[in-house]
Amino acid sequence: MTTTEQQPLNSPFSAASTAEDVMGGHDLSGLTAVVTGGYSGLGLETTRALTAAGARVVVPARRPEVARAALRDVKGSEVVPMDLTDLDSVRSTAAHLGDRIDRIDFLMAVAGVMATPERRVGPGWEFQLTANHFGHFTLACELYPLLAAADGARVVAYSSAGHAMTDIRRHDPHFRTGYDRWLAYGQAKTANALFAVHLDALGKGDGIRAFALHPGKIITGLQREMPLQEQIDAGWVDEHRNVVATDFKTASQGAATGLWAATSPLLDGRGGLYLADCDVARVFAPDLPMDDNGVRAYAVDPDNAARLWDLSLTATGATPTAR
Fold this sequence. Notes:
Oligomer: single chain
């Protein structure tokens, strides 16, 4: 069964809303955010918007020198090294943050990869599931005490309409019997959605609410491992990489739903929801075509989320615990 709260709230914002629209009037002075991938694409727009509203933003980055260059002029941001596919790195970074700050008000899990060639990391794990899910899962568990200390923290996981390609492949989550880069991406995005469902169920007693979302279609660095011809054939860009698709968003529009998830008073007392276009998404039945601002039932199912959580605990050894 899916949550009965998975219904639109008639938000004043829409697919056309920008980061600036959503953040208008918000004063985040004294609050701290952690934004993975916060130095490029949607993550950079998110960092800019949060710091402009007064927040301190910590950006964990696999390429810290690149991140520092990108954020050189973004006052209120700071970079710490971290590789989401290396759980020792994730734990080390979380420990470092625990020594330096006393609370985290927003954890924005923006970083991600899409449709990559087959790669194995750690103990032979599939790369996309590790980078998109296991890394963020471990980070959230390690930072749980700091999130609980905020007494009102929000965790925002960037999923995608791509989750509609597949549920969690429990028989073969690491594609040991044959790799499909798009199914691997779809599984990882379903995992992002289910992560938010169960984290919210566990964390709401400590004031932690979690959301997942589809940011929309945007050309960012996420497509870096897709051949140009594949993007042209999909009708996304031309041979000069100019966007030609009319339903694509700008980076600022793409960041809007995540910022709305983090700050909207309409979401006070709510959580475990999948969002799109700055509102709660509708659930689409398996036999119906799903538009980009919808969600499949399996991606918001609490029992499915609990099973993935158990799988993730076993794989990573992480445990969310308040101090």
